[in-house]
Amino acid sequence: MGAITVRVVDTTGIPVAGAKVFGGFWNNNPDDRAVAGASDENGEITFEHLCTGDFNFSVTKDGYYRTTLRYWFFKTGFDCAKDGRWLPWNPTLEVVLKEKRNPTAMYMKYVDTRVPIQDTPVGFDLETGDWITPYGKGRSSNMQVTYKHTMETGVWRINCTVAFTNLTDGAYQFQQDVYSLLRSSYHADDSAEYEHAFDFVYERTNDKILQHKRIGDDAGLIFRVYCETAHGTSGFHYGKIYGPIEFIEAGLMNIRFSYLFNPVENDTNLEFDGAGFKGGWR
Known about the structure:
The protein is an all-beta fold. It is built from no helices and 20 strands. The strands form five sheets. The protein has a six-stranded antiparallel sheet, with no helix packed on it. A five-stranded antiparallel sheet has the order 10-20-19-18-15, with no helix packed on it. The protein has a four-stranded antiparallel sheet with strand order 3-2-5-6, with no helix packed on it. Strand 11 and strand 12 form a beta hairpin.
């Protein structure tokens, strides 16, 4: 038997009443029903149910971004059960539900394309999501990709550099909040240290990976680029690149990543309104 209390708070730590909590206790019974309820005035709700391992649940409320979590009752190496109950009995798990503040229209792009040439920087237009002429329909080279792959003495190696064209441009790495629908901060931080270039390495033999440096599954980049838009305006534009940033091996020279671009110049807002997008993350 497992029991858990979910305590829902906003980003300032204030309890959120009336949040809907929906989930299920894993107990090897495919016919078992989910549990559901709403948080009280203290932001809390308690569930108790048969369970053989974990509790998976989501928290939603109008005006907030959905949060999805998993709590493991079973913990390897610990004496965590006694007399048919998981220990500690009825722990309180605090869940932060991010409020919707100022969602804005952004360009959502999914890039899965071949780097046109090797060993030479190739310009990429983050507004249009394409390589610049003559390799694509991009107009402004605000990001450059340099791709190199070699095969020597049984070792396959890929070196790839993502660099930002202008001296004032760059990006800083952020840890994604993989539990919330809004995975990033609300705004880009103009006081952060924006790095100009990021180097990626992938190295392997036929049966072993020797190096794999990349922006990973739960990390990303918040960028700032100066460019002229299709509307004839110019200024800084902000956005976020979600990991993983992948560079495909086997000589295909492909780059793959997802990102969001704010088309309003000098606007640091990163809170995507999700218009026209049916996916999960924001």
